[in-house]
Amino acid sequence: MTKQRIKKFIVICCYIALSLLGIVTIVSGYGGVVNPATSCLPAIFAMSFPIWLMLVLLALGVTVIFDRIMAIIPGVTILICLGPILNFCPINLSKTKLTTAQEDRSFTIMSYNVYGLYDYRKPILGVSDITGLTKEGIIGTSNPTLSYILKKDPDIVCMQECHISFEPTQRIISKALLDSVNSRYHYNIYTKGIVIFSKFPLYKVNTIPLSDKTAYYVAAIAEIQGHRTLLVTAHLESIGLNSSDKALYQEITEGEGGRKALAGAKTQLLSKLSRAFITRARQVDLIRNQIDSLGVDNVIVTGDFNDIPDSYAYRQMCKDDFKSAFAMAGCGPVITYHANRFYFQIDHILYRGALDAVDYYRYGFDRSDHYPIEARFLWSENASKVDRNLKGIDLINRK
After folding, report:
1. What does the DSSP 8-state code read for residue 14?
2. Does 369 reside within a domain?
3. Cβ(52)–Cβ(21) under 8 Å?
4. Which of 53, 88, 123 is a domain's end point?
5. Which residues contact 247 (CB under 8 A, 6 or more apart)?
6. Which residues, listed in sequence order, are joined to residue 331 by a DSSP beta bridge?
7. Do 331 and 140 contact (CB within 8 A), yes or no?
8. What's the domain count of the chain?
9. DSSP 3-state assignment of 275?
10. Number of neighbouring beta carbons within 10 Å of residue 91
């Protein structure tokens, strides 16, 4: 075979490889469009979108140097995937500097999976599941997570995996610390797994509960600076990995285990992923239908979705009227979950109505397996106001 034929063969192989890379990247970028009840493979591909995107960017750089015509393929791939790219890695380089008047009509909201308010960096020996933790290490005048929240001082805090009891025999947080929190946040909601601290009046909505044990959500009507707002915070279905699953995933990410590890991933990890995708889709349908039925214009949805941006559950929650605070005010890719080498953005703040996200923060505080996220919102000048005598809503029993 002559050198010319070898060169032609290599060029053809490069075109084929780039085309396949482009197809896989596009499929992963738009994998969330497909209902997981139909097929879970696109959803699994969507989780790997950052990897394929990096390969496409690398391919673009190499082909621009060596063959600009070939660079058309990765270039077109990037253009087609521009929407998912900007959702994964928004480019909001300039920060909005608020005037004094704007500061007065802005507020902050934090969403944080707090790991039961235990310290993730100091696991209790012999316990692998936080639901079985004892009270050791958390009773006292100080708690790192609550202290950090008080330091950041957001106007509203939505916590998931939070378990606080007022009963003296069951209290896992000292009375002194709770008093300190309550003096800062006068309006609070305590439910199974979810706690909301608010500086604004709150009225709990009586909603239809989810039927899943590890998933839950809370809805409340809030009066935020005179604006009637529906606040929803949720903890959607987790993958439900046990210690064996996590060990298997670590083997795969370390390149160990070979075919045995990959076979185990197919039977253990992928089946659990598939069930979780389908369950979250059902949960989001229920929550979204209730949001729509309330007819409230201003809505903020926060929480641990256990799913990435552009996933099916995320898309169904957003539909065509919700925006992401991260996409509108964040900059660069972020991860919000950092445990067990599952480095994903699965915590979100979504909104609609007469308000705009003007800032977004992902803090590096690591006392939970999640990082806290916070957004600053600014009400539009013509946003309608209501009186302060708001009433709660009973979605279950209302006629």
Report:
1. H
2. yes
3. yes
4. 88
5. none
6. 91
7. no
8. 2
9. helix
10. 9
End-to-end CA distance of the chain: 81
Query: Over its length of 399 residues, how does the chain's per-residue pLDDT go in tens digits?
Result: 688 888 889 999 999 999 999 999 999 999 999 999 999 999 999 999 999 999 999 999 999 998 999 999 999 999 999 999 999 999 998 887 899 999 999 999 999 999 988 888 876 544 444 443 444 444 445 689 999 999 999 999 999 999 776 565 555 677 788 888 989 999 999 988 999 999 999 999 999 999 888 899 999 999 999 999 999 999 999 887 666 655 555 655 555 554 555 555 556 678 888 899 999 999 999 999 999 999 999 999 999 999 999 999 999 999 999 999 999 999 999 999 998 778 899 999 999 999 999 999 999 999 999 999 999 999 998 877 776 555 556 555 554
Question: Which helix (H) or strand (E) element contains residue 11?
Answer: helix 3-29
Contact partners, residue 123, CB within 8 Å, separation at least 6:
none
**CATH code of the domain containing 185:** 3.60.10.10
User: Does residue 365 lie within any of the structural domains?
Assistant: yes
CA angle, 67 then 69 then 72, to 5°: 115
Of 55, 88, 121, which marks where a domain is finished? 88
47 located within any domain: yes
Statement: the pTM of the whole predicted model exceeds 0.85: yes
291 and 260 in one domain? Answer: yes
Beta-bridge partner residues of 344: 337
Range of the domain at 13: 3-88
